[in-house]
UniProtKB/TrEMBL annotation:
<dbReference type="InterPro" id="IPR020471">
    <property type="entry name" value="AKR"/>
</dbReference>
<dbReference type="InterPro" id="IPR018170">
    <property type="entry name" value="Aldo/ket_reductase_CS"/>
</dbReference>
<comment type="similarity">
    <text>Belongs to the aldo/keto reductase family.</text>
</comment>
<feature type="domain" description="NADP-dependent oxidoreductase">
    <location>
        <begin position="21"/>
        <end position="266"/>
    </location>
</feature>
<dbReference type="Pfam" id="PF00248">
    <property type="entry name" value="Aldo_ket_red"/>
</dbReference>
<keyword id="KW-0521">NADP</keyword>
<protein>
    <submittedName>
        <fullName>Glyoxal reductase</fullName>
    </submittedName>
</protein>
<dbReference type="InterPro" id="IPR036812">
    <property type="entry name" value="NAD(P)_OxRdtase_dom_sf"/>
</dbReference>
<keyword id="KW-0560">Oxidoreductase</keyword>
<dbReference type="InterPro" id="IPR023210">
    <property type="entry name" value="NADP_OxRdtase_dom"/>
</dbReference>
<dbReference type="InterPro" id="IPR044500">
    <property type="entry name" value="AKR5G"/>
</dbReference>
Length: 280
């Protein structure tokens, strides 16, 4: 169980991934993005998650460079993730997309590179490219995003290397229990995007009651629920006080009763696209 903001989980590749990171989905290039990433790193975050389609890799890269210098850190102190977009899911196209992301980020390697969506008839060639990047030492870990059980079963039939991470929409209204069980059996680490359901759960009565009992915010309770379930989580925020608040989840513990009550909130409700019915 994570006890500190910089605690990590060891992926099956042997790479250590922080339990908690900063997501930057829908954060546009510019000063707000740079300041958010720098604030997170200054506060002790060591993981930042972006993607080619977010169109903010240059800003993230600028923030990383400035934060390393200002906080006397080295590149190896950070865990940086990006993702290949749907239009680039061919073997050669994925390899080129990886190099383009590195160039924008100003980095020599990524810690984790993911296939963003399971586009039918395309993700296997992209996975072959990720395996090449991994085997040649260009990336530390590889994985997928938004993959359902049947997508994972399909990719595992031909894969030389098993995905190390599956990043999916996951929050108390979409707890993904069957997928979590499958990934645990396969040694694939689950990572939650939109853990706070884009803010839609912040007034949820059960969560508010549990939060009040612990003297914490609803957001902190949700992130703690993630961690106690062994789920890596990457809440998004651009506000320094929220970034700090989201990291203040290591000084309390939810009871078994709390965890069960939150588990029972599941409604299989998404805020993002259904991976099986997404108009790519």
């Amino acid at each position: 169980m994570a006890q500190h903001l910089q605690d990590t989980i060891r992926l099956h590749s042997g790479v250590n991934m922080p339990w908690l990171g900063l997501g930057v989905f829908q954060v546009e290039e510019g000063a707000e993005l740079v300041q958010a990433v720098k604030s997170a790193i200054a506060h002790g975050y060591r993981s930042v998650d972006t993607a080619a389609v977010y169109q903010n890799e240059r800003g993230v890269g600028q923030a990383i460079a400035e934060a390393l210098a200002e906080n006397k850190l080295v590149r190896e102190d950070l865990f940086i993730t990006s993702k290949v977009w749907n239009a680039d899911l061919g073997y050669e196209a994925t390899l080129a997309a990886y190099e383009a992301s590195l160039e924008k980020l100003g980095l020599d390697y990524l810690d984790l590179y993911l296939i963003h969506w399971p586009v039918k008839d395309k993700y296997k060639e992209a996975w072959r490219a990720l395996e090449t990047l991994y085997k040649t030492g260009r990336v530390k870990a590889i994985g997928v995003s938004n993959f359902q059980i049947h997508h994972l079963e399909d990719i595992l039939k031909d894969a030389e290397i098993k995905p190390m991470v599956n990043q999916v929409e996951l929050h108390p209204y979409l707890s993904q229990q069957a997928l979590r069980r499958f990934c645990k059996e396969q040694g694939i680490q689950i990572e939650a995007w939109s853990p706070l359901m884009q803010g839609q759960l912040l007034d949820q009565p059960v969560l508010a009651e549990i939060a009040a009992a612990h003297g914490k915010s609803v957001a902190q309770v949700i992130l703690r629920w993630d961690l106690q379930h062994g789920i890596v989580t990457i809440p998004k925020s651009t506000k320094a006080h929220r970034i700090t608040e989201n990291a203040s989840v290591f000084d309390f513990e939810l009871s078994t009763g709390d965890m069960d009550r939150i588990d029972q909130l599941n409604q299989d409700q998404r805020v993002g696209p259904d991976p099986d019915h997404f108009d790519f």
